[in-house]
Amino acid sequence: MCGRFNAADDPLNQVYEELVGHPFPGEPNHNTAPTESAWIVRQDAPGSDELQAIAATWWLTPYWSKTPKPKYATFNARAETIAEASSFREPFRRRRCLVPVCGFYEWQKDGGRRIPYYVRPRAGGMLLAGVWDRWRSRDRTQTVTSFAIVTTAVTTKLEFLHDRQPLMLSRGGAREWMSRDATASDLDALLEPCIPVDLSVVPVSAYVGDPRNKENRCLEPVAASLSIDRDVH
């Protein structure tokens, strides 16, 4: 799964410059949690290949929902069911997005304990696959733009952490994910588990477990990190 991530100007300034032509537009949030606002990258307008950055709520509200927040969890979309699930199938077809992050957190179960790790690229930022939607109240007075991060089965290299992982994209994979011309087979291939960048897996303290803690103390290592090499195809 993906339940927390880090978003900050370093190294995301460069990522946003490459994608939308300007630096990271948000405030640093080193412990972004579901239901909070975060920045995503989506198509600028129907029919346009230009990309734009927009703030959205990390908890997808389908356009057909009766309320602005579903009662069930929609902050992650499973790759195995995204094409059929009622909340995600339309966004998957028409409203895919990128979620640029510095890294994400995962908790390893060790007996009765949960040990937090910070998973980040060894260099630069990371692009996660997402889907977004726009909900409007019936009287059109309220609008909610929201998103979900796509998760997939874990690769063998990360299975010591969890049985799921966010769908990480290479730069080429990100272009394909955002392409209006992507075919069903193209997208199916992207949904397969993969590690597209060299990673560091860093043990961090239980401080990150409280979503109210936002400062960079969340990132401080408490033991040596583990290096994981990207998959080679």
Describe the structure.
The structure is a single chain. By secondary structure, this protein is mostly beta strands. Helices cover 14% and strands 36% of the residues. The chain has 4 helices and 14 strands. The chain has helices at 9-20, 89-94, 171-178, 184-190; strands at 5-7, 29-32, 37-43, 51-58, 76-78, 96-101, 103-110, 113-121, 126-136, 143-153, 164-166, 168-169, 199-203, 226-228. Strands 3, 4, 5, 6, 9, 10, 11 and 12 form an 8-stranded mixed sheet that branches. A hairpin with a 6-residue loop joins strand 9 and strand 10 (143-153). It is globular and about 50 Å long. 38% of the residues are buried.
Q: Topology, pairings included?
A:
Elements: E1 5-7, H1 9-20, E2 29-32, E3 37-43, E4 51-58, E5 76-78, H2 89-94, E6 96-101, E7 103-110, E8 113-121, E9 126-136, E10 143-153, E11 164-166, E12 168-169, H3 171-178, H4 184-190, E13 199-203, E14 226-228
Parallel strand pairs: 4-10, 5-10
Antiparallel strand pairs: 1-2, 1-7, 3-4, 6-9, 7-8, 8-13, 9-10, 9-12, 10-11, 13-14
Low-confidence parts: none
The residue fraction in helices comes out at: 10-25%
Termini separation comes to: 24 Å
- Mean pLDDT, nearest integer? 95
Rg over C-alpha atoms, rounded to the nearest angstrom: 17 Å
Number of helices: 4
Order of helices and strands: EHEEEEHEEEEEEEHHEE
Strand content: 35-45%
Number of strands: 14
Supply the helix-strand structural class.
mainly beta
Largest sheet: 8 strands, mixed
The geometry reads as: globular
Brief write-up:
The chain has 233 residues and is mainly β. The protein has helices at residues 9-20, 89-94, 171-178, 184-190, and strands at 5-7, 29-32, 37-43, 51-58, 76-78, 96-101, 103-110, 113-121, 126-136, 143-153, 164-166, 168-169, 199-203, 226-228.
